[in-house]
Amino acid sequence: MTEKIDKYKVQAALVRSFFDAFSHGVIESQVEDRKEKTTPQSVKKLMLEHYEHIAPAFFDTMFFPLAAMNYKYEDIAALAREAQQRGDDMMALVRTACGDEAYYNAMVEEYKRNFSMLLAGKYLSNADHLEGYVRKAKEETEASVDSDRAIELTVRVVMFAYVRGLRQTGESARFDRSAHLGQVHPLRGATLFRLMLDAMNILLLDEAVDFADAEATDLASLFLKVCQTQHNFTVMTNEMDRTYSELMKE
């Protein structure tokens, strides 16, 4: 039996992972100097330049993962059709995907928290994210997401958001077929691996991982440290393979 993860924790990890991956995709595609990629000036400038692209990219990336936390997979397409028939706009569709008002309000708070940091030229650290994400109110009933599904949805968000960031310049995503993690063929290896490590850290653990004693070149060990179990690691790598294949068809 797989474990369960608190739904607020999963939702916050998805939102943070979107902003982290999308912004890095934008930066990777437009800033050549490695030292300039994550300076406050570069981050702030590029986020302001792409301000109007954030919401559409967020909707395109997040509607399915948010809905998949609250509805059966087979019901999501019908849910989207019904909302479109009502003439719902993007945020109304996202509200529907969140399942109820409490989760929608929490998602909005996470959206604002992450976006405002980027507009200030900063990134939320894993520690700050884990300390400050929106948690359930005392009167709310406990709700959770199957850990396998949570991992799969987080992988999907990281990879799709990163590619959508890369494509903001009109370029197609650049795939690095030479890098490997087990059987995974990632997009631009180094950046994607860093994004995925952070995403698994905030999804599966309650504190930021210290990688000081880990070998940076030993990716499997780094990922096992954040994934905690071989099972979680396998779920992650399998979903990276599946999502990679899906992206290659776009």
Task: Summarize this structure as a short list of keywords or feature phrases.
250 residues, 66% helix, 11 helices, globular, 2% strand
Strand order of the largest sheet: 1-2
Count of extended strands: 2
Largest sheet: 2 strands, antiparallel
| Model regions low in confidence, pLDDT < 50 over at least 5 residues | 171-186
Our estimate of the beta-strand percent is: under 5%
Number of helices: 11
| Overall outline | globular
Q: Averaged pLDDT, please?
A: 86
Radius of gyration: 17 Å
Order of helices and strands: EHHHHHHHEHHHH
SSE-based structural type: mainly alpha
What oligomeric assembly is this protein in?
single chain
Describe the structure.
The protein has 250 residues and is mainly alpha-helical. Helices cover 66% and strands 2% of the residues. Helix 1 runs parallel beside helix 8 and helix 5 packs across helix 6.
Show the helix and strand layout.
Blueprint: E1 4-6, H1 7-30, H2 40-49, H3 51-68, H4 73-85, H5 90-98, H6 101-119, H7 126-132, E2 144-146, H8 147-166, H9 189-204, H10 219-227, H11 230-248
Antiparallel strand pairs: 1-2
Describe what is shown at a glance.
The chain is mainly α and 250 residues long. The chain has helices spanning 7-30, 40-49, 51-68, 73-85, 90-98, 101-119, 126-132, 147-166, 189-204, 219-227, 230-248, and strands at residues 4-6, 144-146.
